[in-house]
Amino acid sequence: MNAPEVWAIILAAGAGSRLRDACGMAKQYICFHGKPLYWHSARAFSHYPPISGIVFVFPPEDCERERRRIAGLAHELGLPWDIVAGGPERSVSGRNGLARVPRTCKKVLIHDAARPFVTPALIQRVLKGLDGTLAGVVPAIAVTDTIKMANAENPDLVECTLPRARLRAIQTPQAFDAETLRQAHKYGEDNEIMATDDASLLEAMGARVGMVPGEPVNIKITSPEDLHCLKDGHSDYPCSGFGYDAHRYGGNRPLKLGGITIPCDLAVHAHSDGDVALHALIDAILSCACLGDIGCHFPDKDPAFDGISSAILLDDALGMARDVGVRILQADITIVAQKPRLEAWKSHICANLARLLNLPPERINFKATTEEKMGFTGRVEGIKAYALVSAIKEG
Ligand code: MG
After folding, report:
1. Among 325, 336, 326, 319, CA closest to 386
2. CB within 5 A of ion ligand 1: which residues?
3. For residue 48, what are the contacts with CB-CB under 8 A and spacing of at least 6?
4. How far is the CA of 395 from the centre of ligand 1 (A)?
5. pTM of the predicted structure, to 2 decimals
C-alpha cells in the first residue's frame, strides 16, 4: 500500500510590520544564505521523502513575483509546488492554502515561513504523531518563564498567574489529518474564529490534538533582535590595512612611540603628540574599515588636536572601525630610525600597544630597523613607521 499523500503549506503571507520597518521588507523575504527566508523551510520539507508537494501562501500583491523567483529555485526542491494568495488573517491564509492542496492528499503540514530552522527530524516527529487517534499534532516546548494573564480592562494590571507546569509554547510545523483540517477551517469560518494557529480550530471543534517535543532552535523570526540568529558568520571576511607615517626631528614634542615616551635628545615636529607608530597604526585600522585616513578624521589644522595624545585618536579610530563591524585581530608595526636605538624599549612598547588595542600581547609584533645611514632616517632628519593590521569584517 502506498503511503498517504502528504503536502506542506508554507504560510508566508504575513505583513511582519516590526521587521518591515527595520529591514525594509517583510520577514519571509529576508535574504539568508542567498535565499529568501521562506525557502529554507521549503528545503527542509523537500528533504523528508513522504512530502509530495508544497503550497506557498503569499500576500496577493507578491504572488507573481514569488512565482517567478520559485520557478528559478525549484530545481532544489524536486517536488510539485504551487502558489496561492493569502488573506488578511492567518486562518484565511491557511484556508486558501488548504484549498490548493490536492484532494487525494491525506495529511497536511502547516508551517510558518518565519521559522527557517525547522529540521526534517521535527517534520518526521509531528507526522509520526498522527497515529489515527489524533487529528492534529503540534510541536511543543515547556514554558520556562512565569506567564501572567493581563486584566481585560487594564492590560497593565495582573489578572492571575497561570500554572506553568501545564503551559506549552507551540511551534510549527503542525501536522493534520487533511479531512479533519478542512472541516476545522469550515467550522472556524462559520463561527468567525480568528485563530493564531491551525490546531486551535481543531480544538474549537472538539477534535483531539496531540503534542510532541518541539525544538528550541526552531525559533520564529519576529523582531529585529531575532535577526542575529540569522548571522552565522559565513558572510564575514578577513581584511587587512596598511599605514605609513613620518615625522621630522627638531620640533618640540618629546619622542613617543606606541604611547611610550622614549627618553632621548630627539624631539619631533607635530600637531598632535607626533607618535609615528600610533599614526601608522590608526591609518592601518581605518584602512581595514575603508574609512579613509587619519587626516580626514583628525585634521592637523584643528586646534582640538593640538598636542593631543595619539592614544585618544587611536581609541576613536577603533570605535569607528567597530561601528562598521571590523574586529581587529593582529597588528605588525615597524619603526625605521637611525636614532634612537629602540632595542630596550621593544617589549615595553609592544605591551602598551596590546593594551591600547585591547589585544593579547602575542597578537602584536613590534620591530625596529635602520636604513643604514641612507635617506632622511639615515641622516637622523626624522623617523618613520609602517603598520599592517589584519581584521575580520562582518559581511
Ligand atoms: Mg603623523
Report:
1. 336
2. 245, 279
3. 120, 123, 124, 127
4. 31
5. 0.62
Question: In the Cβ-directed half-sphere of 372, how many Cα atoms lie within 13 Å?
Answer: 0
**Where on the phi/psi map is residue 42: left (φ > 0), alpha (ψ -120 to 50), or beta?**
alpha
CB distance 395 to 324 below 8 Å: no
Beta pairing, strands 168-170 & 136-142: antiparallel
Q: How far is the CA of 240 from the centre of ligand 1 (A)?
A: 20
Q: What is the pLDDT of residue 253?
A: 94
At position 79, the amino acid (one-letter code) is L
Q: Are 198 and 136 in contact (CB under 8 A)?
A: yes
Which long-range contacts does 144-148 make (Cβ < 8 Å, 24+ apart)?
Answer: none
pLDDT of 263 higher than 70:
yes
Which residue carries 506567564 as its cell? 147
Report how far ligand 1's centroid is from the alpha carbon of 193 (Å).
71
Q: What is the DSSP string of 54-74?
A: EEEEE-GGGHHHHHHHHHHHG
392: which residues sit within 8 A by CB, 6+ positions away? Answer: 236, 237, 238, 239, 326, 327, 329
The average pLDDT across 233-245 equals 86
Phi and psi for 211 in degrees, rounded to 5?
-125, 145
Ligand 1 centroid, distance to 394 Cα (angstroms): 29
273 vs 281: CA distance, rounded Å: 14
For residue 322, how far is its CA from the centre of ligand 1 (angstroms)? 22
Taking 90 as the threshold, does the pLDDT of residue 339 lie above it? yes
Ligand 1 centroid to residue 271 C-alpha, Å? 8
What is the CA(276)–ligand 1 centre distance, in A?
5
Distance CA 205, CA 291 (A): 62
Q: How far is the CA of 300 from the centre of ligand 1 (A)?
A: 9
CA of 106 to the centre of ligand 1 (A): 75
* Ligand 1 midpoint to CA 270 (Å): 7
